[in-house]
Amino acid sequence: MTGADGYAVYLFPQALEALGDAVKPYLGGDAHSPRVMCREIDTGGALIEMTLEGTTADGQPVEVQLMLPASMVRMIVSARGDAAFGFRPRQPATPP
User: Fold this and answer.
1) 29-46, pLDDT tens digit by residue?
2) Which of 18, 40, 82, 83 could be bridged to 51 by S-S, CB 3.0 to 4.6 A?
């Protein structure tokens, strides 16, 4: 994902267990809060389609489409570049 703009997609623990090693390359975060970071997301159907930016084994950029059943998704959070991302108390922005 370029910069900090995009979405953090959290999956249910049962989904992580069912998907196993197949989903691990797409997960970020830590062991307590694994998530899929994606640039775009489409929630308009039975499958949630996520567009991820990655690199191939030889370092070339690649766009990946990851689709999961909507029932596997626990929460989607917008991660915007103009604010810090995470779950902690926010400090008010300092005026310029």
Assistant:
1) 888 889 999 999 999 999
2) 40
* pTM for this prediction: 0.74
- What DSSP string describes 13-59? HHHHHHHGGGTGGGEES-TTS-EEEESEEE-SSSEEEEEEEEE-TTS
CB contact set of 21 (below 8 Å; sequence gap of 6+): none
Residue 32 CA neighbour count, 13 Å, CB half = 1
Total of domains in the chain:
1
Residue 1 lies in a domain: no
Range of the domain at 37: 6-79
